[in-house]
Write a structure and sequence with these properties.
The structure is a single chain. By secondary structure, the protein is an alpha/beta fold. It contains 20 helices and 19 strands. The protein has helices at 12-23, 35-44, 61-71, 86-94, 107-118, 124-135, 141-153, 170-179, 201-206, 223-226, 242-254, 280-286, 291-297, 314-329, 338-346, 352-366, 374-377, 401-426, 431-438, 442-451, and strands at 4-8, 28-32, 49-53, 55-56, 59-60, 77-81, 99-102, 160-163, 188-192, 231-235, 256-257, 266-267, 271-276, 300-303, 335-336, 371-372, 383-386, 389-392, 397-400. Helix 18 (401-426) packs across helix 19.
Length: 455
């Protein structure tokens, strides 16, 4: 049987255009002109897709979106908005709409939306939950809630702003939303916005035409074109220059781009996910980030919790990471001692999951036999006097959590370098004797000498 679509609109021209377009895609259409009629039809039969206008004779289309979310949560609803009314479109997405289309309707945009919506089968949420559990590890209530939100967001096309400290796994969450959604067969394109030089950022995003500027020897596609049909993940979006923020806003609103040096616009079908370790609302207040772009990107905010707020997950994470590292390095180390696991669970991990990975990778090089001891972890003594500020007693340095990861790693390297240099000096740079004094293998010492530039 053909897929069934419900079209709710009181404009004959819109009804005719939608019906013809969907029929050409082998989709059977049923129409309603009012919310009351749509609710009656929804109670009588099941649908695979629904289109609704925002202004109907007996009420607001948002009412219908909310009611469908309550009674038919698996039904994708696309709203039809007036040209340029992005505020209404954003409100609809926040209310649970799958996506939106603006008048006048563009047939290609319409077809792409329908194709994406039909990929969402009713039994998909259960499959999503199983797959997200394998990728987003943790059994604390925080992680169960996060997986539930990811499952819901995977059924939408709404822009999502992923907030959280450095090292919490924001890109992992973004990739999971993509992989579990209707766009999974298309590209996931991550971009670090802070790593692109200001003079190249427009060309990188939108592409350019041959001869557009010195060095443009051929046409080049931009990131939006590479992500067409898929997802564009804007990491560290707060680092975008203001000039580019204006052009990005227009690309999101119009679903179209113009390459540098080009005259014609190109339609692009891209879902935008964004993230930054900075407080984006504070960036808006300081004037370094446009409020209107923040409003478009932050349709739905998804917060990834820091590791110190879910310390009960550390054992599961550590075992998973250790297994992965041991397989990669062919190491004989397979477990942690009880003391080592306790040390991990009591440590606040200001650098989050990334720091846990670095700690275990470092410990693998120090460990003897098949087990990692608490000493092998070389965890610094860190206290948390208040808020998110951590202090390293040996130095007296107090650093806020989001900025701590890099400082902490350099501090640990300095500690390692000092310990190794002391052992080498005491053994007159006899590496075999120094390794024995340090309680590590000669191979592990050679690895450390190379890593720390002590050779």
């Amino acid at each position: 049987m053909n897929p069934q679509a419900l079209i709710v609109d009181d404009e004959p021209d819109i009804l005719d255009l939608l019906s013809m377009t969907l029929s050409g895609m082998s989709i059977d259409c049923v129409s309603a002109e009012t919310i009351a009629e749509a609710e009656r039809l929804l109670s009588q039969q099941s649908f695979d897709l629904c289109f609704t206008d925002m202004r109907l004779p007996d009420g607001d289309g948002l009412q219908l979106v909310k009611k469908i979310q309550e009674s038919h949560p698996d039904l994708p609803v696309a709203v039809i908005t007036a040209y340029g009314n992005m505020d209404l479109a954003v409100t609809a997405l926040k209310s649970g709409a799958f996506d939106f289309v603006s008048k006048p309707l563009k047939l290609q945009v319409l077809r792409e939306l329908v194709e994406a919506a039909l990929k969402l089968s009713p039994n998909r949420p259960h499959k999503i939950e199983r797959r997200s559990r394998d990728r987003l590890l943790g059994e604390t209530e925080l992680m169960r809630e996060l997986r539930g939100k990811v499952a819901k967001l995977a059924r939408s096309q709404a822009p999502v702003y992923i907030s959280g400290e450095s090292g919490t796994g924001k890109e992992l969450v973004a990739r999971l939303i993509h992989d579990l959604g209707a766009r999974s067969e298309k590209a996931f394109v991550p971009v670090n916005c802070g790593a692109i030089p200001n003079e190249l950022v427009e060309s990188e995003f939108f592409g350019h035409k041959k001869g557009a500027f010195t060095g443009a020897v051929a046409d080049k596609q931009g990131l939006f074109q590479h992500a067409h049909g898929g997802t564009l993940f804007l990491d560290e979006v707060a680092d975008l220059p203001l000039m580019m923020q204006v052009k990005l806003l227009r690309a999101i609103q119009e679903k179209a781009i113009r390459p540098v040096g080009g005259h014609d616009e190109i339609n692009v079908d891209v879902r935008i996910l964004s993230a930054t370790h900075k407080n984006l609302a504070e960036c808006v207040e300081k004037g370094t980030f446009r409020q209107d772009l923040f409003y478009r990107l932050n349709v739905i905010e998804l917060h990834v919790p820091p590791l110190r707020e879910r310390q009960a997950d550390i054992q599961l994470l550590a075992e998973h990471i250790l297994k992965k590292l041991a397989g990669k390095t062919h190491s004989a180390v397979t477990t942690l001692t009880a003391e080592a696991m306790t040390a991990l669970q009591q440590y606040p991990f200001p650098g989050n999951v990334r720091e846990l990975e670095n700690t275990l990778e470092r410990a693998l090089t120090w460990a003897e036999g098949t087990r990692i001891s608490a000493e092998d972890l070389m965890l610094p003594a860190i206290t948390q006097p208040n808020g998110n500020a951590f202090t390293i007693p040996e130095t007296g340095i107090s650093i806020s959590a989001p900025a701590l990861n890099q400082d902490l790693e350099s501090h640990l390297e300095e500690q390692e370098r000092a310990i190794i240099e002391k052992a080498l000096n005491e053994t007159r740079w006899n590496k075999t004797a120094a390794a024995k004094r340090l309680g590590i293998t000669f191979r592990a010492l050679r690895y450390k000498l190379k890593k720390l530039d002590l050779e």
